[in-house]
Amino acid sequence: MIEGIRWREAEVLEVSDMRRKKSCNASKKYQWCVSGGTQEPVGHPRTQAEMAHTCRGTINLSTAHIDTEDSCNIVLSNGGRTYHLKASSEVERQRWVTALELAKAKAIRMRNNQSDDSGDEEPASQSDKSELHGTLKTLSSKLEDLSTCNDLIAKHGAALQRSLSELENLKLPAESGEKIKAVNERATLFRITSNAMINACRDFLDLAETHSRKWQRALQYEREQRIRLEETIEQLAKQHNSLERACRGAPGSTGSAGTTKGSVQSAKGEASDEDEETEYFDAMEDAPAFITVTADPKHHRRSGSNLSGASEGHPEDWNLEDSVFESSNQSSYNESCKDLLPKKRRRSRIPDKPNYSLNLWSIMKNCIGKELSKIPMPVNFNEPLSMLQRLTEDLEYHELLDKAVKCESSTEQMCFVAAFSVSSYSTTVHRTAKPFNPLLGETYELDRLEELGFRSLCEQVSHHPPAAAHHVFSKRGWTLWQEITIASKFRGKYLSIMPLGAIHLEFHSSGNHYVWRKVTSTVHNIIVGKLWIDQSGEIEIVNHKSKDKCQLKFTPYSYFSRDVPRKVTGVVSDADGKAHYVMSGTWDEKMECSKIVQSSHGSAGSEGKQKTVYQTLSPKVLWKKYPLPENAENMYFFSSLALTLNEPEERVAPTDSRLRPDQRLMESGRWDEANVEKQRLEEKQRAVRRRREAEAVEALEEGKDYEGYIPLWFERKVDPITGELICAYKGGYWEAKDKQDWSSCPDIF
């Protein structure tokens, strides 16, 4: 065997001392872990002590290149890492090459299976994991093994045939020529036999596919039966709830609602109303499943005692015309600013997006041999806004926070904060192009203090990893700040974008301090098909003063789901865990809030979890998406606010995104010039980074401290709420703007 190699269960292959290992099992293994060997890369001296104990690296077999140097040596390479391994004989080397290629094929299949699991499918229930499903999976695995063997036979057979043909053409004695001819004939027989086996495997594959389709239809039928059974159970739950209320309202127990435990209402006509108005919400992973039942508020008056699970205030307050909730239902883009009319007319359109064709090969051939960080990505993939401007777009529905200031109850205020957190995703539904990556030190201001009551400032505070700090002050009674770092993972068919960092919101008068984090955004059909974006995950919003919480669940899109696409559900609860409001809606359209007047525990669901039944009043619309401007499809699907973000303004800092030349050229439709300018700016930034690295080396040699890049308007400090190191606004920007003193700003454009 190869000296210094062994498999271990952690799905890696270790290289140590393995002289006594007699076989290799390639199944379920897809990495090499190298800790020794006969030949080593430069800089890795080989000693007996080294071979015995430590792991010196891993190689992912799914992307590794397997090659042979001579009769006994194997070369494994992946990117910049190369390992040389030596077998005891040529036969042993060939056995290992075959085993490694089989393991590589399995690793590729495992990676593709993981890529296919994009979150589009709902987790399979226990009933789906049947024996039939397992049989299909096993059969599919065996067929893949046959296909891999087929490829290996064809590969090695062709190589053998070529080698024999080359030998036959050599000038050798007659006896040697006859022996070579005999070997060639045997190779031909081997090829004929292999072809026969391949044909038999192909017939087996066709037969298996035929039966597989039948089994899939049977499995689909069972799934449909399960869905029908779940619907029946839901109907029974509704009838059970109606019968419970009818029983409470029977003779001997009629009267005011306050004389019974829970809400009492007349049974007359209730069953039909219940069936028409009942809404069901999916359970969240970390909370019991719940069902909401819409109730008539006139049957839920209180006299002396509180309703079970009722929220603060009287249920009849829900319909008061002057309540904060009622006013939110009547808001629109124009009405939101009636008290402060715009002082300046903003633009309502930008030049139409040019119809430039994208030649992927011309991009790829320019990337050959270059470092990934130096590959110039054309503006064809961008939209004419920077990431700082996209971050500022979160404020499009700032009036939700203005309304939240007026709430006297912290749980009511939480509803508006939750709606605001969801509204920031509404602009992403059609926006598949990526924003420009800000340069280090780039800033963006949005001063709407006189028009909308707030002013916002963003600064790019780090380039590797990219991080942006954001601070917003509103004279209507709130302050918002955040530092967002974007992490991404490319999984073959889709790209996952994970914003890291907490968002803080504080209301001045009450001192309520809310903290939450963003969910994962997924861009689908990266390679083939039309790009589309989905949001999935959970948001937990916490009021660190009152300890109120809101759990929001963004349901991932599924082709087979009966739910509304882009669905968002959640529950607002107080510090004691008592639920007060149910949130429901979609992240691209609207969010509603329903006040809970009674809660009770129902029967266990299909997964054994106990469902909570929330009886609620009619929902109120807290947020509704503004319609897109006319001709938005030709203007990158920008919203009315987005169209104004890159509008030129006077007196801004020289580092402002509005002054970025490549972005301005792209907006004007001059994409070729924008690409040239983009490369110039990126090379200028690299030169500054190289100079900064040289200064750091020089300071190190002299024994001095080197601080590195320091943000201009933000400073690093520990957040007292989360304990994380964040960039907080230190002040000075708006004062510098008033004085027009930009002497401290770097020259980045």
Automatic annotation (TrEMBL):
<feature type="compositionally biased region" description="Low complexity">
    <location>
        <begin position="249"/>
        <end position="263"/>
    </location>
</feature>
<dbReference type="InterPro" id="IPR037239">
    <property type="entry name" value="OSBP_sf"/>
</dbReference>
<keyword id="KW-0445">Lipid transport</keyword>
<dbReference type="InterPro" id="IPR001849">
    <property type="entry name" value="PH_domain"/>
</dbReference>
<keyword id="KW-0472">Membrane</keyword>
<keyword id="KW-0175">Coiled coil</keyword>
<dbReference type="GO" id="GO:0008289">
    <property type="term" value="F:lipid binding"/>
</dbReference>
<feature type="region of interest" description="Disordered">
    <location>
        <begin position="246"/>
        <end position="278"/>
    </location>
</feature>
<dbReference type="InterPro" id="IPR018494">
    <property type="entry name" value="Oxysterol-bd_CS"/>
</dbReference>
<keyword id="KW-0446">Lipid-binding</keyword>
<feature type="region of interest" description="Disordered">
    <location>
        <begin position="110"/>
        <end position="132"/>
    </location>
</feature>
<comment type="similarity">
    <text>Belongs to the OSBP family.</text>
</comment>
<protein>
    <recommendedName>
        <fullName>Oxysterol-binding protein</fullName>
    </recommendedName>
</protein>
<keyword id="KW-0813">Transport</keyword>
<dbReference type="GO" id="GO:0006869">
    <property type="term" value="P:lipid transport"/>
</dbReference>
<dbReference type="GO" id="GO:0016020">
    <property type="term" value="C:membrane"/>
</dbReference>
<feature type="region of interest" description="Disordered">
    <location>
        <begin position="295"/>
        <end position="319"/>
    </location>
</feature>
<dbReference type="InterPro" id="IPR000648">
    <property type="entry name" value="Oxysterol-bd"/>
</dbReference>
<feature type="coiled-coil region">
    <location>
        <begin position="219"/>
        <end position="246"/>
    </location>
</feature>
<feature type="domain" description="PH">
    <location>
        <begin position="74"/>
        <end position="105"/>
    </location>
</feature>
<dbReference type="InterPro" id="IPR011993">
    <property type="entry name" value="PH-like_dom_sf"/>
</dbReference>
<keyword id="KW-0597">Phosphoprotein</keyword>
<dbReference type="Pfam" id="PF01237">
    <property type="entry name" value="Oxysterol_BP"/>
</dbReference>
